Amino acid sequence: MVSNSALSQLSIYKKGKVRDVYDLGDNLLIVATDRISCFDFILPTLIPEKGKILTRISLFWFDLLKSVTANHFISADMDSLPAILQNPQDKDILKDRFMITKKCEVIPFECVVRGYISGSGWKEYENNGKVCGIDLPADLKESDKLSEPLFTPATKAESGHDENVSFEYMKQSIGEELANQLKDTSIAIYTKAAQYAEGKGIIIADTKFEFGFFDNKVILIDEVLTPDSSRFWPKDSFEPGKPQLSFDKQFVRDHLDSSGWDKNSAAPILPQDVVFKTQYKYKQVYKQITGIDF
Ligand SMILES: Nc1ncnc2c1ncn2[C@@H]1O[C@H](COP(=O)(O)OP(=O)(O)OP(=O)(O)O)[C@@H](O)[C@H]1O
Ligand SMILES: [Mg+2]
């Protein structure tokens, strides 16, 4: 298990809630740890192998989606690690959980695409008939498929909670042309991936992408279509009108909701059965999408 990758020979570029990002000069080394975050808190409990599962899932999608968008991936091959990391301890930490990527200027928006109405979107719709300010038909049920995927951006807050913003706001902030490009690309990626996943028995209810500039071009960065960034539902038990069984962290969120934790103080330790079940769900997504046992 890796809670903290701590590669002391390299300088940290950014420490995220889940990934440790190191500076390799022109490139980045992104290490997916086994940390899990919920409600923007890093939980004190690790999910064994989670970082490896996430890395493999992102690699799969980067490859499948490369005809739709260029991305930041360079290599996940041990031999391409710098000489300074070619030692048994570091290789043991890094094995199957790293990617060498292009170093990009991150565009500070989370590009959220929703194909189904769920979670915070459903709560908002119940209140005012809209999702992120977009009017929707009056007769939707919880978890219903939307007539077309919605693009609902959020700001990437430096610290704390990301905040939903209107597409208008996004256009004003980064310019109409770039905002339209991100919207069109996000919807194209979602559409292709959702169609693929559905053929494998998984509904991608919603997801979020990040983009960055490399060589003045916009490319897909970060992680793609993982259970950390997406809601995945098994297709065979899909039934609108209620929340769905899910393959993602909803299970952990539900546990925390029922635990009595106030979401203000340090997060509680997860019981072993929640840890195992979460790990199982992450593996199951990988297996169902790629057809390969983790
Ligand atoms: N190619 C890239 N170039 C620069 N930054 C990147 C690239 N790919 C991913 N990142 C950034 O690396 C970090 C990955 O770490 P992680 O996903 O754990 O962060 P996080 O807790 O989600 O934080 P944040 O809210 O900043 O995304 C993110 O901040 C992401 O924006
Ligand atoms: Mg992230």
List keywords for this structure.
single chain; 294 residues; alpha+beta; Phosphorylase Kinase, domain 1; D-amino Acid Aminotransferase, Chain A, domain 1; eight-stranded antiparallel beta sheet; five-stranded antiparallel beta sheet; 17 strands; 31% helix; globular; binds adenosine-5'-triphosphate; binds magnesium ion
Architecture (CATH level 2) name of the largest domain? 2-Layer Sandwich
Strand content: 25-35%
- SS elements, strand count: 17
Structural class category: alpha+beta
Bound molecules: adenosine-5'-triphosphate, magnesium ion
Distance between the termini: 16 Å
Query: What summary fits the major beta sheet?
Result: 8 strands, antiparallel
* Subunit organisation of the chains: single chain
The Cα radius of gyration reads 19 Å
Overall shape: it is: globular
Helix content: 25-40%
CATH superfamily of the largest domain: ATP-grasp fold, B domain
According to CATH, the fold-level topology of the largest domain is: D-amino Acid Aminotransferase, Chain A, domain 1
Low-confidence runs of at least 5 consecutive residues? none
User: H/E series, N to C?
Assistant: EEEEEHEHEEEHEEEEEHHEEEHH
Number of helices: 7
What is the number of domains?
2
Write down the overall mean pLDDT: 95
CATH C-level label of the largest domain: Alpha Beta
